[in-house]
Amino acid sequence: MIGLSSYAGVMESVMNSAEEQQPSSPLANAWSKKQDSSKNQKTKGVGGFVLVHAGAGYHSESKAKEYKHVCKRACQRAVDQLKAGALAVEAVAAALVELEDSPFTNAGMGSNLNLSGEIECDASIMDGKSLHYGAVGAISGIKNPVLVANRLLSEAQKGKLSAGRIPPCFLVGLGAHDWAVSHGIPPCPSEKMATKFSLSAYKRNKRKMELAEKMDMGHNQTKKRRQSSENENGSGCLDTVGAVVVDLEGNVAAAVSSGGLAMKHSGRVGQAAHYGCGCWAENACNMNPYSTAVSTSGCGEHLIRTMLARECSAAMQSEDAHQALLEAMQNKFISSPFLASEDRVLGGVIVLRCCRCVEAQPSQNIQGILVEFLWSHTTESMCVGYMSAQDSKAKTHISRLPPGTVPGQSLAIEGGVCRLMSVVE
């Protein structure tokens, strides 16, 4: 069964954020897709759009204000970068830094502790223009893992190393930490990255595990206890953060960062670091009419086995973005043969797609970018925020599954449309 939240309902609220915004896909009749024939022309205008998420999991009403606030700050940080002329990849990294710095998210500061009581983080970033990607896995002692991933990406763009060596795009553990420090990213003691909340959650989870190991219980009781533990810890396990951005030139970028599952085994690497699983970004080309960017959240093992980020990106080349994402989440995730043994398939995505457009009666010096943005999740809730450079402030929303539906077996999907305008000089 698919639980479907109101797509049109969110559209109504999105319409108020910019007077240029248009109805949902398929593209409105007043617009037509246009190949980019102005590569050597300079564009002038207010620059871009960002969509962020503070994780798919469970967001209590008592902490809703904090989750929304950090999403607003992340959006504003990215928009400030875009207004200053930064490309999408730099803006998306800026948004992730803000999300990582919040003690309320499971990324960077305040991340979940592993079995050994240590923090190990995963992060990745992808640039849709160059198609380069950078990632770190199980990295400790770095306050903002996304900055290491972004530096790996930028270093790879410089070309081969001495003696013709291929530069790395994905580093893990101590090697990732040492590479980061050698490239000017300051270390941060792990104990300073833990918060009162993450430490208390670790102590609570450790007591539960120790008690469970001492108890001699039957198969049915063990199964029941395991399911109960999943429900209790779900909110702390699945709140990976991420963002997708399009700049005024139509370039897209995506990023994701996570502290991983609570009480995970040391060295475990989740979807946030894996290529095609945590994030994906790809500019439009002859084969693909739309530029797309995706960032995921949820149970890393589920997202890795389905490569959900890349699957959703490919689906966005269909004419109807909403229907395409709905089918991708249902067929490629919930009903995926790779997850046939799972009782509950837990995850969420934010998706952005865009194309250059002209009005029905176009002006030669006016160009527009039509941006369609969506989010979908099978978890109880997902917190998102979005903002264009034309907006005075970001909008935030905590999406929840419809009443009566089962997490991991149902999904919610919502979204909106925004039009960016620029003057061609």
UniProtKB/TrEMBL annotation:
One of the record's GO molecular function terms: threonine-type endopeptidase activity
Keyword match Hydrolase: yes
Gene3D superfamilies assigned to the protein according to its UniProt record, in alphabetical order: (Glycosyl)asparaginase (3.60.20.30)
Q: Where is the active site?
A: T240
Q: Could you list this entry's UniProt keywords, alphabetically sorted.
A: Hydrolase, Protease, Zymogen
Question: One Pfam family, short name please?
Answer: Asparaginase_2
Annotated SUPFAM superfamilies: N-terminal nucleophile aminohydrolases (Ntn hydrolases) (SSF56235)
Domain of life where this protein originates: Eukaryota
Q: Which residues does the UniProt site feature Cleavage point to?
A: D239, T240
Q: Which GO terms describe its biological process?
A: brain development; cartilage development; protein maturation; proteolysis
Ranges of Polar residues composition bias in the record: 15-27
Which InterPro entries does the UniProt record give?
Answer: Ntn_hydrolases_N, Peptidase_T2, Taspase1
Q: Where is this region: Disordered?
A: 15-42, 214-236
UniProt keyword Hydrolase, yes or no: yes
Q: Please provide, in alphabetical order, the Gene Ontology terms of the cellular component aspect for this entry.
A: cytosol
Q: Subunit arrangement?
A: Intramolecular proteolysis generates 2 subunits, alpha and beta, which reassemble through a non-covalent association to form the fully active enzyme.
Family as reported in the entry's similarity comment: Belongs to the Ntn-hydrolase family.
**Name listed for the protein in its UniProt record:** Threonine aspartase 1
Instruction: Please name the source species.
Output: Seriola lalandi dorsalis
Instruction: Give the taxonomic lineage as stored in the record.
Output: Eukaryota, Metazoa, Chordata, Craniata, Vertebrata
